[in-house]
Each structure stands twice: as structure tokens, then as C-alpha cells.
Amino acid sequence: MRKWIYKISAVFLAGAIAAAAGACGPNSSTLEKNLADEKDSNMKTVLLFAPMEKSDPDNENISRTAFDITVGMAEEKLGVTVEYRTYTAENYQEKTYDEVTLDRVRNDMDDFYLLNPDTIQILGEEGELVDLSVLDSAKNLREVVKTANTVDGKLVSIPQEVVVYGLFVNKDMFDKYNLELPDTPEDMLECCRVFKENGIETPIGANRWWLENFVFAQAYADLYNGENTEQEIAALNSGEAKYSDYMRPGFEYLKELMEKGYIDAEKAYTYEAIEGEGPDFLAQKTPIVMAYWGAANADTAYGKPDFNMQVIGFPSKRGQMPVVSITGFSVSVNAEHMEDTMNVLDVMLSDEALQVYTETNKVISPSKNVQVDCIEALKPLNDRVNDNVYVLGSNANMKVEQWGNTCNIVSKLLNGASVEECMAEFDRLQEESLKEE
To answer: What is the mean pLDDT of residues 381-394?
Structure first.
């Protein structure tokens, strides 16, 4: 989960009301209390648990989050207040955001939540989340969103953006050595060979979180872009097919990239996303890194490079392949303010609100009716997604959670595990999922 830190604001009612009331009644403090009690009794509130805090509504829109703006649209239209309950590492010490949200949902502590893919899957299977397909806004969703967030036939989560991962490449460095941008794994190996021979120490800058995208692109290129997606997933869920058979080529490929020095496994194992490999990419010491769509728009990430940057899909047998991982908003089945919460989400996820969100953040919308006017660097990735060419890095239909598990097993590979040991871990996870049925 990216770290979202925003300013907390508080609004205090000054003594003007009390001063004005003093001439009208015997006890201004009593009247003030009565007015406050009346306001509280008439106020409708829904409770959101998320990793970000609410920004000051009096600030200019440019300094507020796109999310806050859509919340404001719902509050104004419905006459409700969305109360943010916020995760901070300081409050929860050693607990991760996922661990905290699992606990809060299971104990009915809030109305709705922003959840990560693995948590969506777990809670969906436990029956803790409401079916959101009843929302009017759900009718406009892209198929990729419905596919990723449907558990046991229920649409249990909807995002405000589709998070797409790709390769960020320094096109100038490719041009310098007369290299075409890679389409296939073989193309990538050849590009890395040329870079390495010309003194570029590490052609691919990597971190411990996102290398699994190389695996997903190869593992599921045919599954998601062929004619038998549902049947293949059903075979995996029943144990008729093995996840390890899908994953093996990607892990063998990563191992080769490491052994040839095209990826520094030791550094990648310790690097945080962007913070580790980012400086070398911006300094044009390494020509390739991986990141999510929004990093191309962020000045603090790769938004203003001093070179021609292009964002493409990961190499696969079907060419450049975007990898999609979807977080989302989910509602507790025991939400205290169920009707108001569902209404709030319906406004936030409407095409009107998503248009504002998409234009503000320059991201891919979950609605098929809302298009992004992306920057030039992102057009190769955007074109593939618009052509429905992608693989899912998270899919709640799969009994073995994908994003978190694959990331953990890739970390084992970075730390010296063999491909066979990694495949054995996938087999173990699959056997456990079959026992749970």
C-alpha cells in the first residue's frame, strides 16, 4: 500500500453563536448545548477506515486529494458526513494495514473500507462484504474490475482507479544503442546484454515489491487473453491445474536475469519501491525500472525526468503486457449505517465523480464511460489496456491469493531460494486452498 499522508484539519465553532444567543435567553451555555445536541441528532454519518486522513475542505481543490473531492460530492448531495478513521503505523505499531483492516471488518467497527487485493479476497470468502453489484454505478464498470473483485459470484469491492503496472524505460538510452523497446522475454535479454556490454552495471533497477509483475506477465498472458479464462481459473481452483506450472517460466526468467547480472538481487531484496532504484533511473545510470501508472504523473516519482521516458508493458509471449492490480472500497455486511453508506459509494463511484477523480489524478477509470487524457509517456500502456490486453496481478476468483503470495515467493528467490523451492511453495499454497473447501 502506498503511504498516503495528509493534513488533519479541525473546525471549531467560535463564541459568536453564544454571544448572539446571550441576548435571547436566560442561559447562553444551555442554549449552545441544545443547538449542538440538535445538530448531532440530525446529522447522518458514515464511517470510513482508510490509510489517509481527510484534508481541509476549505483548501483549494488543487491541494486536496481527488478522493476527498468525490467524498465532498457525496456529502453535499446526500446531506451526510463521512467520518475518516485512519490507519497510522504509529497507532498500530507492528500491525500492517491489511492486518488492521481484517480485524476491523470482522468486528464490525466501521461502515466501509479501502482494501488491498489480498484482504478483499479473504473477507469476500468469509462473507464479510456486501455485494455491490446492486449499485447503479456498478453497471458502468469495466470487465477487468468485475473480474478482479468478484468472490463467489458477488462483486465485493469497487475502486476509483485501475492500478496498472508497467516498465518505465529511458528511450534515449535505447536509441543510443539502436535498441527497440522489448516485446518478448528474449527481446529484454538482448537489450540487457547490450547495455551490460556498454558499461551499464545494472540494466534493470528493481525493488522487492514489484518484480512479481515479470512473473504475472508471462504466467497469465494466455490465460487472460485467450478464449478459456473461466475454465482455466476453475481448473486451478479445483486442483486439476497447478499454479506452479503457470509460474515456472516467470521464475526461471527472473533467475536468469539475476544470474546474468541484469538485476541486482541483493539490492532489490532491500530496496523499497521507487526509493531504492529511482535515483539511478533519474540519473540515467539504469535504463529500466518498474512502477505503477500514477508514478509517471508524480513529481516525487518519475513525473519530470530529464529524458524521453516511455511506459510499456512487461515482456510476454503476447508482447508488451500491462499488469493490473485492483484495490477497492468495500462495505461491511453489518454496517451500522448501511443505506447511507451504499448511497455515498454510489455517488463516489458515479461517472460524474469518477470523471473528476480521473481528470485530477490522470489515472485509468474503473468506468468504461470515463477515459483519461494521459501524458505522452503513458500512451503505450494506455493503448494496451484500452485494447483489453492485460493480465491481472490480483483476482479474487482465484482461491490462492496472487499479489501478496507471489511477492513473498519472489522475495525468497531474491534471497537465494531455487526455482524448485519457489514452485514447491506454490504447490503448498494450492494444497492448503483445496483443504479449506
So the answer is: 91
